[in-house]
Amino acid sequence: MDIRKIRLDDTELIQPSEDRDEYDKDYARLIQSPAFRRLQGKSQVFGAGSGDYYRTRLTHSIEVSQIAREVSRRLGRMYPFLANKEHPGLMLEPEVVECASLAHDLGHPPFGHKGEEVLHHLLTAEHGIPYEGNAQNFRILMFLEKRAGSESGLNLSAAVLLAVNKYPFSLEEPGRNKGVYGMEWEGIHQLRQLWNMPVGCATLEAQLMDLCDDIAYSTHDIEDGIRAGKIQMNKVFFEDDRLVDEVIQEIINDTGNIGVGWEKADMKALVKRVLVDYQEQWESIYIQCGREASRARREMKARWVSRFANGVGIIDDPSTGWKRITLVRDGAEDTELLRTMEILKKLAWVTMIKDFRVQRLQKRSEIMLQRLWDSFKHYDTGKLIIPPDWLESYERQKGKWTWERLIADYISGMTDSYAEKVYSELFASRIGSIYERD
Length: 438
What we know:
CATH superfamily of the largest domain: Hypothetical protein af1432
CATH class of the largest domain: Mainly Alpha
Distance between the termini: 43 Å
Helix content: 55-70%
């Protein structure tokens, strides 16, 4: 028995396919799932529908999967120990990393990170239970999605499920703000025990997926920002002390930044240097591309993706006794390149997410989600306006989930436009016909 390919809910109702590998089945189940299709209508940075050019959660997920698949292949050639298959969690199969990357954002609600923030605040304030995007991935993959013959969502292979699990903790543990809800943690914990995974350690495939997500965010989202004019490619913009100070403040505020040597660096000088170098590189590429901005944006993005992707490596982590995927130079962690990537991520954040127009849209989305929640949260009235299939599912499964969790699941599964549609049906003076299908 290959413990990487087992499924938590194998039943005789699921017809085996002898000519397909298990990971090919996982890939097909993911890309054919409604949850995956809905990513096309969920915000990445700019609101879904802002324009044909800008990325959505769907295009972002596809781009992460492409980077992760290629890096996985390169690492497989670089590190002979991977071929030994000495431990199921110390393997890198490109197909597994690709599937995990496609699935990594399924749990994000409408309106980007603002949606996650609002739902978490509502659930914790009123019911003392969390909402967390990574945990919601597993609600979808292991419970909410439906496929014939399975009561366990998409019933993915163990390798893919654990490759999505970058935070291998139960959210029911005190002090945890990232992880897996208790209901789904039972299955994940069962697989981790079967694999003999060290406590608190993610598989190499999960680590690679996570790092490639950061690579995409620090390169592709900046391309969108340049295209939208939020990032102005001139010296005045990049040398503005206010921009430097805002980037620094975001770095300081991010508690996930520890461990990359900020305390040993002159942060202001480093941020200035990275920003100035970035702008000067743009000028050079812009000229090389015949002063065609569209070509220059794509070339700039490609070079930075290549720089980060080619820097990915595997080192021993003495603090855990496990191995760690990170940016590596000369056999050690490349903290300089990690800090550069973090600066570019914060550049994207302060120029786009913090833009006052984006903040206005986020405020609008906060109001909509709050009012949708208030409309559905009471069972006696909410059951009258929730789609019948959701109500039927709740009645069948109410021993396993609360009404409040159901409503969070329902709202978080909405696309941006569907959330606006439901909001309009409830609060606008007139909207279309009652016979429009959801």
